[in-house]
């Protein structure tokens, strides 16, 4: 076991460690609560990361892709847990990327009205975002993550060794979420090693969650770039991976901010530089028009009214309400150029 780094998510008696490093998945048994007899390992067939909870364990496999991030999957899992005999003293372990940890966390939060969960995050996106902070949930046809809960894990293990097993496109897409942290206080993350970038991103996220667990205010900034991203994902029937959509959403947010006089051209160029340096898409797929995405902005889960965005400004990104529709349309046109 190599050296590893621990970042704490500080939430009083629900505080927990996020461990980052090569091989930290092998520390899973150390985080299993005493008195726990069984661990339900929730994963996907293509993940192929073995864990040892140090107690009786059974692997429950969910399908791959956003189409499996639905209530039916949670029902199936809970029924399978019950058939196996998982009790409220036992534990669920999510082993995978954001879809797995969102679904496993949600199932854990409702099974027996809530049992402990531990996440072993195997994707870049999971390690720097999805597995941390307790947001769990599934999609509805009407929108992403519209049903869910806040259910903090006992621990998150970000095993950087597993990143090398990711399909290239998925690793690349995770960089879209990483790009977001450049603008949330991360600065020149691109000058760090990948493991250090994960640690820096986890630290930013842990601080945001510790300050505002239920997204009453500042945690919303973690959704930078996500309003268009969610709309693109839905309009394109999830052909874009989440991180790819976030990459485009970051540039869109910068274009909107510039049209509103909040930032200058150099700052927009900085967004393009960061996203471009990660070799991520800079514009939406040609077949998705503004008319396709505009109605979806209102369904975004953080929408207070129909046009709420996180926009950069002189003091950094902040929540901006009442963004005019004509500006949103012009920014989309610029984005597609
Ligand atoms: N992914 C944004 C958050 O966890 O708040």
How is the biggest beta sheet arranged?
7 strands, mixed
Query: Termini distance?
Result: 49 Å
CATH first level of the largest domain: Alpha Beta
Question: What is the N-to-C succession of helices and strands?
Answer: EEHEEHEHEHEEEHHHHHHEEH
For the record, the count of structural domains works out to 2
What is the helix content?
40-55%
**Overall geometry:** globular
Which small-molecule species are bound to the chains here?
A: glycine
Determine the CATH topology of the largest domain.
Answer: Rossmann fold
Provide the low-confidence segments as ranges.
none
Question: Architecture of the largest domain, CATH level 2?
Answer: 3-Layer(aba) Sandwich
Summarize this structure briefly.
This protein has eleven helices and eleven strands. With 337 residues, it is an alpha/beta fold. The chain folds into two domains: 5-165, Rossmann fold; 171-205 and 214-336, Dehydroquinate synthase-like, alpha domain.
Note down, in words, how this protein is organized.
- The structure is a single chain.
- With 337 residues, the protein is an alpha/beta fold.
- The model has no long low-confidence stretch (mean pLDDT 94).
- The chain is 40% helix and 18% strand.
- It contains eleven helices and eleven strands.
- The longest helix has 19 residues, at 168-186.
- It folds into two domains: 5-165, Rossmann fold (3-Layer(aba) Sandwich); 171-205 and 214-336, Dehydroquinate synthase-like, alpha domain.
- Strands 1-2-9-6-5-3-4 form a seven-stranded mixed sheet.
- It has helices at 28-31, 71-84, 98-110, 124-130, 168-186, 194-211, 226-235, 242-259, 265-277, 290-297, 325-336, and strands at 5-9, 16-21, 38-44, 56-62, 91-96, 117-121, 135-140, 143-150, 155-159, 309-311, 318-320.
- Helix 5 packs parallel to helix 8.
- The structure holds glycine.
- Glycine is lined by residues 129, 133, 135, 219, 222-223.
